[in-house]
């Protein structure tokens, strides 16, 4: 291993000989060894730990070294841990991964050398497999040669069609090719890689994926933040409280990436519901890594702290079992834990084995609160010396198991204290008696920590004249202190033979006691290893319990709800009449908004089929798709969802496609990437799938992109999946699409102060207003650019319309929608002939227009005046508001008197359809209408009313009654919208101002 690499990744100091053939090495203090190993293994390095042989050596002789351990990403654990007196924290081990291909699809096999387990998952799509590779760091990657036989029939994998995304992911890593049986060959490579015996067996923990939804695609996972992605709201961060970290977060992430089967999802939801109702206190849920647990017991290296943590795990399982409220939760958690571990354990067996293991640990390990193993003390020997020497073995196991060693250590400590008192104390007393007030010789008894000794340290304490005074005899017995290599330790350190003999006796007693303690701990590891499956199962169960309790707590704080989970109807050909196959989300809010703070816009999504969604830029299409995707995913995982109520079927896959970007490394444009994802979606979708596509075919020219989009809509419609396809390609509504289950939806807009703004609400109909110019202004595009764009737009498209040469796509793109954004189904797909006829009539039939104006005016007066008389009759007839209609012809504007006044207006469209609206800014509203293509010369009729409330009711009245008099309205649906009231006006509550 090159020393510079070690320095770069672990911050070590390089050393080695100066000769060119010397081996580069890197060293670190032993106190930094644990952190150094963690840093290296996390970065994928294998580490050989080399230590020096302790003991005296000759000067200038070569130091003897030995290999004390080997740590690697697959097993970042080393020997010597049983003596550690703190909690052991390691990186999670990385698996060895093998990828192959079968008739069902792609297959990934993960082998954990630490756990001696392997699992395989087959039938994956390319995108789902790449997602797994992105979220699981591997120690080694092996690719099976079956991958080379791709659908293009070539052996150059990834060059054509399918396989390019996976090849791009794998080619950035180091990998090796294997052949033969994928699993057998991979296990052979693992044994070879780690130097394992041929007899070593690996346990298959694969859980059947039957009836389980397909794993998330990479695009879906990144676009809703299951895999944290810059600029994307992270779903993981809102599911759990900020202080919940580590293993519970990993469990939630893995569950979202690999949704469970319907039965498991219902168990998880039932568990969460019970958790939300419990009134008793709950355990702390000790989380222990299964891999660390297995490895420490296998190596016999678990220390007393780890045994205490294992006992906490077992006791918390037993606590849940004995508590009537938590007992049912414990039972419900059995199946999710089986799926997570691959271990099928009977409930009674779990409880019995937990009781036995907890009792066995309690018999041996010294638990917190036991105070029968006090550290030795002496008034002469420094307290730190005894603490450092005895804390390595005292307080680990119960005293009853080491009584003999304990007694011997206490006797040796007393002998050492006596030797130090007899040999050093007289010298100290003499020095104090002869020390001058302003200085002089000094001496003291100190603990030499590096040498694990108690010595006398002094200078200028030897008398110049020996007078036989007290302490001189002890001074004569002193000799220089030496270290373990026979070298003198400085000029001021001294000891005596009696003290050294006492130190040797004390250290021997300590080593004997320490060895006995380690022997007992390793013996307990051997006993518990026979129960390893129970321990792994129990530890994982508590991880799941902690994750779900944390999720419920956060969900309740955010005012989320539990959805009703439904299964799909078995018949694939017959559409369910009662909506059993549909999905309904009431009061849905974006998952990244905190509903508790009241900042979210709510939507209701009743999805029984495919939606074709339109809406302006910034209208909330992408946010709606993300919100629906997240809610559906949370629902099929058994979690709470950000809504007021929800019914979610158990989907077999959830696929979200957002905007695509080019991939220069693969030589693909953004449209090529999009088509690749469309291929994956179409081939993977079924009648039980949820497909969400944002701005379909945006990366190519409009005409052909529209046709491809239409064909994709037809294909998904035929499949019968649920989903939403959003688009700005309005020409798609003029295509002769053969669809049965596709409905039109739009993101609403409203007119505020003469400006059209999005409401972010999902409504019925089609919105052909893009708000492109408004969006450009809002984002700071120079006004000159916007104005020129408007000029080009109006000049080109208005000329085409008046000349009768406007094509179908332009007609649909330029079709009008009311300022309130609620379009009628009657204007979804107007034929181009309608516009050509309307344009012809405008050019040579002025008389017909005048006739229409007069007819509309008479109908308005008749309808509204009658209603006003009914409204005013109970109050004051003298205040009766007369309906006085005013016509605003082409190239005319309303008078200033309309500013700030409530008015109802009727727009006479070129196609002879009427649009009815109300506003307090008539000038701005007319300007907004005429800014739309084909409406520049529209005629308006308006009348003023005293107050907005009355104007709203008159608007609703006209919308509902004008069709009865033979007029065609473009916004009939507005009469039923809640913002417009209803046609049945309550006269009792009506007031006129």
Describe the structure.
There is one protein chain. The chain is an alpha/beta fold and 993 residues long. It has 29 helices and 28 strands. Strands 9-8-5-6-7-10 form a six-stranded mixed β-sheet. The protein is elongated and about 140 Å long. Mean pLDDT is 80; it is low at 570-579, 798-846 and 978-993.
The percent range for strand residues is: 15-25%
- Count every beta strand, where a strand is a DSSP E run of 2 or more residues: 28
Biggest beta sheet summary: 6 strands, mixed
Shape: elongated
What Rg, in angstroms, do the CA atoms define?
41 Å
- Low-pLDDT windows of residues: 570-579, 798-846, 978-993
Number of separate helices:
29
Assign the structural class, choosing from mainly alpha, mainly beta, alpha/beta, alpha+beta, or little secondary structure: alpha/beta
Please estimate the helix content: 40-55%
Q: Order the strands across the largest sheet as they lie in space.
A: 9-8-5-6-7-10
Whole-Å distance between the termini? 89 Å
Assembly classification: single chain
Nearest-integer average pLDDT? 80
Defining key terms:
993 residues, alpha/beta, six-stranded mixed β-sheet, 28 strands, elongated, disordered C terminus
Summarize this structure briefly.
The chain has 993 residues and is of the alpha/beta class.
SSE diagram, text form:
Layout: H1 3-10, E1 13-15, E2 25-27, H2 33-42, E3 47-52, E4 65-71, E5 96-102, E6 105-112, E7 117-124, H3 126-135, E8 140-144, H4 164-171, E9 175-178, H5 182-194, E10 203-204, H6 218-223, H7 235-239, H8 247-257, H9 262-277, H10 290-298, H11 304-322, H12 324-332, H13 334-341, H14 347-364, H15 383-390, H16 403-434, E11 442-448, E12 453-459, H17 472-477, E13 479-480, E14 493-495, H18 497-529, H19 532-557, E15 564-566, E16 583-588, E17 603-607, E18 610-614, H20 621-636, E19 645-649, E20 653-657, H21 670-684, E21 689-693, H22 702-719, E22 722-726, E23 742-752, E24 755-764, H23 772-778, H24 783-802, H25 808-814, H26 832-844, H27 846-872, E25 886-888, E26 902-908, E27 914-919, H28 922-930, E28 939-945, H29 948-961
Parallel strand pairs: 5-8, 7-10, 8-9, 15-19, 18-22, 18-23, 20-21, 21-22
Antiparallel strand pairs: 1-2, 3-4, 5-6, 6-7, 11-12, 12-14, 13-14, 16-17, 16-19, 23-24, 25-28, 26-27, 26-28
Helix pairs in contact: 8-19, 9-12, 9-19, 10-18, 10-19, 11-12, 11-14, 11-19, 13-19, 14-18, 16-18, 27-29
């Amino acid at each position: 291993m090159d020393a510079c690499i070690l320095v770069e990744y672990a911050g070590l100091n390089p050393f080695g000989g100066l000769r060119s053939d010397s081996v580069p090495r890197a060293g670190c203090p032993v106190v930094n060894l644990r952190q150094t190993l963690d840093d290296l293994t996390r970065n994928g390095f294998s580490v050989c730990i080399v230590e020096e042989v302790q003991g005296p050596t000759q000067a200038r002789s070569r130091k003897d070294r030995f290999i004390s351990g080997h740590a690697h990403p697959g097993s970042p654990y080393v020997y010597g841990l049983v003596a550690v007196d703190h909690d052991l924290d390691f990186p999670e081990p990385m698996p060895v991964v093998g990828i192959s291909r079968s008739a069902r699809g792609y297959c990934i096999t993960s082998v954990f050398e630490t756990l001696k387990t392997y699992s395989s998952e087959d039938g994956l799509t390319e995108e789902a497999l790449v997602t797994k590779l992105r979220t699981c760091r591997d120690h080694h990657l092996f690719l099976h040669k079956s991958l080379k036989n791709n659908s293009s029939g070539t052996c150059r994998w990834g060059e054509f069609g399918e396989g390019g995304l996976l090849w791009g992911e794998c080619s950035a890593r180091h990998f090796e090719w294997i052949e033969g049986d994928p699993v057998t060959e991979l296990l052979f490579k693992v044994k070879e890689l780690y130097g394992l015996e041929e007899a070593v067996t690996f346990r298959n923990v694969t859980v059947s994926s039957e009836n389980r939804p397909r794993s998330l695609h990479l695009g879906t996972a990144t676009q809703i933040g299951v895999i944290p992605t810059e600029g994307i709201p992270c779903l993981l961060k809102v599911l759990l409280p900020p202080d919940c970290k580590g293993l519970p977060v990993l469990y939630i992430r893995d569950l979202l990436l690999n949704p469970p089967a319907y039965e498991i999802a219902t168990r998880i939801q039932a568990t969460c519901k019970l958790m939300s109702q419990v009134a008793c206190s709950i355990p702390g849920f000790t989380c222990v890594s299964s891999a660390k647990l297995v490895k420490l017991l296998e190596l016999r290296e678990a220390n007393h702290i780890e045994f205490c943590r294992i006992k906490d795990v077992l006791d918390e399982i037993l606590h849940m079992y004995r508590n009537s409220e938590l007992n049912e939760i414990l039972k419900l958690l059995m199946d999710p834990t089986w799926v997570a571990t691959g271990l099928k354990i009977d409930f009674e067996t779990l409880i019995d084995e937990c009781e036995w293991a907890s009792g066995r640990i309690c018999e041996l390990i010294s638990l917190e609160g036991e105070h029968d193993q006090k550290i030795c003390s002496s008034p002469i020997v420094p307290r730190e010396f005894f603490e450092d020497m005895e804390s390595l073995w005292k307080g680990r196991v119960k005293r009853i198991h080491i009584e003999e060693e304990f007694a011997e250590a206490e006797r040796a400590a007393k002998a050492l204290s006596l030797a130090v008192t007899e040999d050093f104390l007289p010298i100290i007393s003499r020095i104090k008696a002869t020390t001058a007030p302003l200085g002089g010789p000094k001496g003291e008894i100190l603990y030499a920590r590096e040498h694990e000794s108690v010595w006398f340290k002094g200078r200028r304490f030897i008398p110049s004249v020996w007078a036989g005074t007290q302490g001189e005899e002890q001074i004569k017995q002193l000799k220089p202190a030496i270290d373990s290599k026979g070298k003198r330790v400085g000029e001021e350190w001294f000891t005596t033979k009696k003290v050294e003999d006492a130190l040797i006796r004390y250290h021997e007693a300590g080593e004997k006691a320490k060895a006995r303690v380690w022997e007992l701990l390793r013996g307990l590891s051997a006993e518990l290893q026979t129960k390893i499956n129970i321990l792994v199962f129990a530890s994982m169960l508590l991880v799941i319990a902690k994750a779900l309790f944390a999720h419920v707590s956060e969900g309740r704080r955010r005012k989320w709800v539990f959805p009703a989970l439904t299964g799909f109807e078995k018949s694939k050909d017959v559409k369910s009449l009662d909506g059993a196959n549909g999905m309904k989300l009431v009061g849905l809010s974006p998952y990244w908004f905190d509903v508790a703070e009241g900042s979210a816009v709510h939507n209701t999504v009743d999805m029984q089929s495919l939606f074709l969604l339109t809406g302006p830029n910034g209208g909330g299409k992408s946010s709606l798709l993300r919100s629906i995707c997240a809610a559906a995913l949370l629902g099929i995982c058994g979690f709470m969802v950000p809504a007021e109520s929800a019914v979610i079927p158990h989907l077999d896959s959830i696929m979200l496609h957002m905007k695509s970007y080019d991939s220069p490394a693969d030589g693909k444009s953004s449209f090529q990437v999009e088509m690749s994802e469309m291929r994956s979606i179409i081939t993977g979708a079924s009648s039980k799938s949820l497909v969400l596509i944002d701005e379909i075919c945006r990366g190519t020219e409009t005409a052909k992109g529209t046709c491809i989009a239409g064909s994709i809509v037809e294909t998904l419609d035929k499949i019968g999946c649920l989903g939403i396809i959003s688009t700005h390609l309005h020409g798609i509504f003029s295509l002769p699409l053969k669809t049965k289950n596709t409905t039109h939806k739009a993101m609403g807009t409203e007119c505020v102060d003469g400006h059209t703004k999005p409401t972010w609400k999902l409504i019925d109909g089609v919105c052909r207003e893009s708000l492109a110019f408004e969006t450009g202004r809002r984002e700071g595009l120079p006004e000159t650019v916007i104005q020129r764009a408007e000029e080009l737009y109006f000049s080109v498209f208005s000329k085409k319309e008046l000349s009768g040469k406007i094509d179908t796509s332009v007609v649909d793109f330029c079709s009008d929608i009311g300022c309130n954004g609620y379009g009628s189904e009657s204007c979804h797909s107007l034929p181009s002939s309608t516009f050509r006829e309307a344009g012809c009539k405008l050019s040579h039939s002025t008389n017909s227009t005048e006739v229409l104006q007069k007819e509309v005016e008479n109908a308005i007066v008749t309808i509204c005046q009658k209603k006003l008389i009914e409204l005013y009759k109970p109050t004051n007839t003298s205040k009766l508001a007369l309906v006085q209609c005013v016509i605003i012809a082409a190239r005319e504007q309303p008078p200033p008197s309309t500013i700030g006044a409530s008015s109802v207006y009727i727009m006479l469209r070129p196609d002879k359809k009427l649009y009815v609206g109300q506003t307090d800014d008539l000038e701005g509203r007319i300007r907004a209408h005429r800014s739309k293509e084909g409406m520049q010369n529209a005629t308006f009729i308006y009348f003023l009313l005293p107050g907005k409330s009355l104007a709203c009711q008159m608007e609703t009245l006209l919308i509902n009654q004008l069709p009865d008099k033979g007029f065609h309205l473009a916004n009939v649906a507005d009469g039923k919208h809640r913002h417009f009231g209803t046609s049945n006006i309550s006269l009792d509550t009506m007031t006129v101002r």
